[in-house]
Every structure is written in structure tokens, then in C-alpha cells.
Specification:
Radius of gyration: 22 Å
Pfam families: HTH_1 (PF00126), LysR_substrate (PF03466)
GO molecular function, one term: DNA-binding transcription factor activity
Distance between the termini: 51 Å
Mean pLDDT: 87
Strand content: 15-25%
CATH class of the largest domain: Alpha Beta
Family: Belongs to the LysR transcriptional regulatory family.
Oligomer: single chain
Structural class: alpha/beta
Protein name: HTH lysR-type domain-containing protein
Number of strands: 11
CATH architecture of the largest domain: 3-Layer(aba) Sandwich
Number of domains: 3
Helix content: 40-55%
Number of helices: 11
Low-confidence stretches: 202-206
Largest sheet: 9 strands, mixed
Keywords: DNA-binding, Transcription, Transcription regulation
Order of helices and strands: HHHEEHEHEHEEHEHEHEHEEH
Length: 292
């Protein structure tokens, strides 16, 4: 390749993040490294990609025209890596799958049954993670594939596919909680009561609690806190049905809830999944949530 892959990635990531510093944080590099890589790319191309006269870099007209070509080059390179790994027939001795509690329990059960039939000699490890934790585990190589509540943007090194399944999220409280006795609630009314929420939201700054809040790293722990009456919480409906049978939770009647959440499957393009990970990805791409 005539142009440095690192420079192409730095360019695309800067466009996605909106600044050199944000791109550097996402790529886990220094800002000077990102800026220098883009400067070298501009020198190779013979024109500027960004207008640097304002506080944040703005794409030039040339940069806008080049962007789609650079994205296509990186995408083709990723596909080549995946095809090469697939053709090599390499099967992982161990596959680590980090999944969200939003995955329907029946889907996970069927996945494990089929995986055992296809790869009986591959060690299969499941980790639970939500949001940024999933991405972090993939970036560090601690997991090979992961599930996450769908979002619009991911780090450049993340491969992503939207799964043909959704999960339903509802708002729940314990039967003993004062909110359980109210027939209809407005969203704003909830914020006078303690919210139970993922602490990954708090860490990445994606959402700030509007009222009192307790937090936990996964939905299963939040469910336990909800059962004990510590507050209201948005939870996967299937998780509540599966694990809150003995002490049922009350689903709150709030406009717009329950709501469907899309799920994305992620992997690290720098170390794409082998035969087992590719099978898992294909299996979930074809899957559907079982009927209740």
C-alpha cells in the first residue's frame, strides 16, 4: 500500500471523533503521533485534508472527497484479513465471548448447544460486560467477540454488524416501592426517585443522571438491587422474566416503554476471529429471539 495504514486510520478516526486529541485517545496514541501521521498523508497526497484555522479541524473539500476512498481501502483490508484467516482453517483453542445481559437467555442457550456440537475441543469462555467495558475487553485482546447495545459510532479498529434481533427493555421497581402503586407515570417524574443504572454510562460521560442514582457494572446486579427495593431501573424484560420469578418486579407504565433495543456484534479487526469466532458471528447474524 502506498499510503501508511496508520495514517489512513488516523485520518478516519479524526473525522469520526472531531478532533486530533479525541482520535488520539480512542487510538491510545499521543496527539502528536496522530497529527504527524495525518501530516505525512497530506504530504503524500499533495493537499490538505483539514482546515486547521479554527479550534477544531474541519474537513477541506479535498478531504471530503478523499474520505470515502480511504474508508473503502480500510474496509477492503479488513475483509482480506478475515478471508485469509477463514481460508487458513485456523480454529481457536479458546474463544472468549463478552456479552450483554440484553441477550435473550434462550438465544445464549441455543448458541452454546450448537457451539458444543461444532467445536467440542475449543474452550468457550463467557464474560459479562456492557457498553465501554465490551469495547475495552476487545481492544485489549481479552475477548475475541462481543455484544453491545447498538450505537452509531465505534473506534476504527472495531468490526461491527447489526444483528437481526432486538431486545425489549422495561422500567421496573420492587412491588414494595412507592412507584409500583402509581398507574401512569411521566418520564420526568421518575427523576425524583433513585435510579439504578449502569456505571459504564457514568464513566464514559454518555449520560448523566438527572436525579439520585446508584450504579452497578451489569444488569443482573441492577436487577438484584431492584428486587431489594433500592430504586427504579431500566432492565431487559427477558432477564426479569428469567431471574425475578420468586420476587416479581412491577413494570412501570411510562410512555414509550417498554422499548426495543438493537444489538451489535463486535470484534477487533486487528486480530479477527478464527473459525470458531466466525461461526459464532454467522450464527448470531442468522438468529432470532425465540417467541415468549
Amino acid at each position: 500500500m502506498r499510503y501508511s495504514p496508520e495514517a489512513l486510520i488516523a485520518f478516519v478516526e479524526t473525522v469520526s471523533c472531531g478532533s486530533f486529541s479525541a482520535a488520539a485517545r480512542r487510538l491510545r496514541k499521543s496527539q502528536s503521533t496522530v497529527s504527524t501521521a495525518i501530516a505525512h498523508l497530506e504530504a503524500d497526497l499533495g493537499f490538505s485534508l483539514f482546515d486547521r484555522s479554527s479550534r477544531q479541524p474541519v474537513l477541506t473539500e479535498e478531504g471530503k472527497r478523499v474520505l470515502s476512498y480511504v474508508q473503502a481501502i480500510l474496509s477492503a483490508s479488513d475483509r482480506l484479513d478475515e478471508v485469509a484467516l477463514s481460508l487458513s482453517g485456523e480454529t481457536e483453542t479458546r474463544l472468549t465471548f463478552v456479552l450483554s445481559d440484553t441477550l435473550h437467555p434462550d438465544v445464549l442457550e441455543e448458541l452454546m448447544v450448537q457451539f458444543d456440537r461444532q467445536f467440542p475441543h475449543t474452550e468457550f469462555e463467557c464474560l459479562i460486560g456492557e457498553d465501554e467495558d465490551v469495547i475495552d475487553l476487545l481492544q485489549k485482546g481479552r475477548a475475541q467477540v462481543g455484544l453491545i447495545e447498538a450505537r452509531n459510532h465505534y473506534p476504527t479498529e472495531m468490526g461491527v454488524t447489526r444483528l437481526p434481533m432486538q431486545t425489549w427493555m422495561g422500567l421496573y421497581v420492587a412491588a414494595s416501592h412507592p412507584l409500583a402503586a402509581q398507574k401512569t407515570l411521566q418520564w420526568d417524574q421518575l427523576h425524583t426517585w433513585r435510579e439504578l443504572r449502569l456505571n459504564t454510562y457514568l464513566e464514559n460521560g454518555a449520560s448523566v443522571a438527572r436525579g439520585p442514582a446508584w450504579s452497578a457494572p451489569n444488569y443482573l446486579l441492577l436487577l438484584s438491587m431492584s428486587v431489594q427495593g433500592f430504586g427504579w431501573c431500566a432492565l431487559p424484560c427477558a432477564l426479569v422474566e428469567e431471574f425475578a420469578a420468586e420476587k416479581p418486579l412491577v413494570q412501570l407504565d411510562v410512555p414509550g416503554w417498554p422499548k426495543a433495543i438493537s444489538i451489535d456484534l463486535l470484534w477487533n479487526k486487528k486480530s479477527p476471529p478464527g473459525a470458531a469466532g466466525s461461526w459464532l458471528r454467522d450464527h448470531l447474524q442468522q438468529g432470532r429471539i425465540p417467541a415468549d
